[in-house]
TrEMBL record:
Name of the protein in its database record: AraC family transcriptional regulator
Lineage, top ranks: Bacteria, Bacillati, Bacillota, Clostridia, Lachnospirales
Keyword tRNA processing (UniProt): no
GO MF annotations, alphabetized: DNA-binding transcription factor activity; sequence-specific DNA binding
Keywords assigned: DNA-binding, Transcription, Transcription regulation
SMART domains in UniProt: HTH_ARAC (SM00342)
Species of origin: Candidatus Eisenbergiella merdipullorum
PANTHER family referenced in this protein's UniProt entry, alphabetically: ARAC-FAMILY TRANSCRIPTIONAL REGULATOR, HTH-TYPE TRANSCRIPTIONAL ACTIVATOR RHAS
InterPro entries per UniProt: Homeodomain-like_sf, HTH-like, HTH_AraC
Residues covered by the HTH araC/xylS-type domain: 198-295
Length: 300
């Protein structure tokens, strides 16, 4: 594919990069690498792209520049990170007015990776739903840089399972991005609300066998139930009732595998009807409780 920042090294930039060609299996089934490297701008320059089936992550190692994306302009400085969906038009530039100081001091150096996968559209959307931004300044910058360095080393190796190792590193990158997507400044401004939601989760984890309603939770934690719903989903990515059902199904799976308990006794313990528990279990697991138990028969 074309380089993200320039088509080749010129007197404008100096770079060390790997343009990677994943296997057909990796392209169709894995989060796969397309390009990774570092560059140093030697003179002011601007790059524009659109319509690329890729996601771009880069960090500014030194200098300054500017990103235009989603109808907004962002000034970038050392330590800033960018994570964008390259299907949308974007441009970045360094060394021009508005991109820091004029001249050589303003010219940036970058470290980046360009990657994609069959589920990246949904993953990037989840990033946005969690509050992720195109530009952010992380506390764990060295962790991001370490992942990028390891990606480069793996892509440059002859490891016969390198596509799987690349997916592992890209997954680590995405986990970091999802963790940092939670707006810590906003969370600090509303710290009591965040603590309350964490307490709600801890309560559900400890009391999932009890009969729990949304009204009960709202009363217990002195919070409006609709606000509780919003905060919980924003923080944990799923509605309260979905999370509670996941915890209960996990408990039922463990009982079905390692005990002889019936669905009726489990439903009674969870304060729900046996027929409802069976429907819930099949909705989550894709099989009935009896089919699940049979598939694990003899499990140690």
């Amino acid at each position: 594919m074309d380089s993200l920042f320039s088509n080749s090294d010129t007197d404008t930039v100096r770079s060390t990069r790997i343009i990677y060609t994943p296997s057909s299996f990796a392209r169709s089934s894995l989060i796969h690498l397309q390009e990774t490297g570092t560059l140093q701008a030697l003179h002011p320059h601007k790059s524009e792209r659109s319509g690329l089936c890729s996601c771009l992550f880069f960090t500014v190692l030194s200098g300054a520049g500017k990103l235009s994306y989603g109808g907004k302009s962002y000034d970038l400085h050392m330590g800033d990170c960018v994570f964008i969906d390259c299907r949308k038009p974007y441009s970045h530039e360094t060394g021009f007015s508005g991109a820091g100081r004029q001249g050589k001091e303003a010219l940036w150096s970058l470290q980046w990776c360009h990657f994609y996968g069959p589920n990246m559209n949904a993953i990037y959307q989840k990033y946005l739903e969690r509050g992720g931004r195109p530009v952010f300044h992380p506390e764990r910058l060295l962790t991001y840089r370490g992942i990028l360095e390891e990606l480069y080393q793996i892509a440059d190796s002859a490891d016969y399972v390198r596509d799987m190792r690349i997916q592992e590193k890209l997954s680590s990158l995405l986990i970091l991005l999802m963790e940092d997507a939670w707006d810590t400044q906003e969370a600090a401004a509303g710290a009591s609300a965040v603590v309350d939601i964490q307490q709600v989760k801890e309560y559900l984890d400890a009391n999932y066998t009890e009969k729990i309603t949304l009204d009960d939770l709202a009363a217990r934690f002195f919070i409006n139930k609709y606000y509780l719903l919003t905060l919980f989903k924003d923080r944990y990515g799923v509605p309260v009732n979905t999370y509670l059902n996941q915890v209960r199904v996990t408990y039922v799976k463990r009982q079905l595998r390692f005990t002889g308990r019936t669905v009726e006794s489990l439903a009674d313990e969870l304060h729900i009807e046996p027929a409802y528990l069976s429907r819930l279990f099949k909705k989550v697991e894709g099989v009935s409780p009896s089919e699940f138990r049979k598939s694990w028969k003899g499990d140690a």
